[in-house]
Inverse folding.
């Protein structure tokens, strides 16, 4: 009955995110509260510019907040598998950008973020792929309002639909996507390497030609 999604298998459940996730807000801080050490903190800027759809504090470059927030704001502390949505976006296409914590390392959700935590035992990586899909993002984009800055509220995120297959199928789909994306990323890496070599060759041709190291007469110049 959800037209934008089309047909789904009969044993899949389609429901609003409000029935699937609990929502809350990140730390009420500003950039001035960020520092170079402490507890990793994911703010909306990292969600938009640095992170992909998953976040590992041991690998990704983010700022930190003081340890004191462990005693004052534990409700903003992320658990493994929690999602962090940016609650504002400066471009329409960025509406719905998020990252999920794929690590057991402690981390906070920072300013201008919405925390989404699964209510039941689902595969968070499957939900991350759902949230990253055009079908999910387009729902958010039809609800956001703004001209230069677009606001992504908890109400909007709660009213968007997700689709949930049985957990065994979720795991199978995640494995399939991971394997396919790994191969695609490898091809992109090889292609980027070739592009860089061609750029170097182009620069070499220009340099050698303008310095007289190539006899251009053989080309009819």
């Amino acid at each position: 009955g959800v037209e934008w999604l089309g047909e789904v298998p009969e044993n899949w459940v389609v429901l609003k995110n409000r029935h699937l996730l609990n929502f809350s807000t990140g730390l009420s801080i500003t950039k001035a509260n960020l520092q170079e050490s402490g507890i990793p903190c994911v703010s909306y800027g990292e969600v938009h510019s640095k992170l992909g759809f998953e976040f590992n504090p041991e690998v990704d470059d983010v700022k930190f907040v003081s340890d004191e927030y462990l005693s004052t704001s534990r409700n903003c502390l992320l658990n493994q598998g929690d999602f962090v949505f940016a609650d504002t976006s400066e471009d329409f296409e960025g509406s719905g950008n998020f990252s999920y914590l794929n690590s057991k390392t402690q981390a906070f959700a920072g300013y201008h973020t919405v925390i989404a935590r699964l209510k039941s035992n689902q595969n968070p990586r499957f939900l991350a792929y759902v949230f990253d899909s055009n079908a999910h993002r387009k729902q958010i984009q039809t609800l956001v309002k703004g001209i230069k800055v677009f606001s992504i509220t908890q109400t909007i995120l709660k009213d968007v639909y997700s689709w949930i297959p049985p957990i065994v199928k979720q795991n199978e789909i995640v494995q399939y996507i991971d394997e396919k994306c790994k191969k695609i990323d490898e091809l992109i890496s090889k292609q980027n390497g070739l592009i860089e070599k061609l750029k170097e060759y182009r620069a070499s041709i220009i340099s050698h030609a303008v310095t007289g190291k190539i006899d251009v007469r053989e080309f009819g110049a």
About this structure: Residues 115 and 126 are 17 Å apart (CA to CA). The chain is about 35% helix and 20% strand. The mean pLDDT is 90. The radius of gyration is 23 Å.
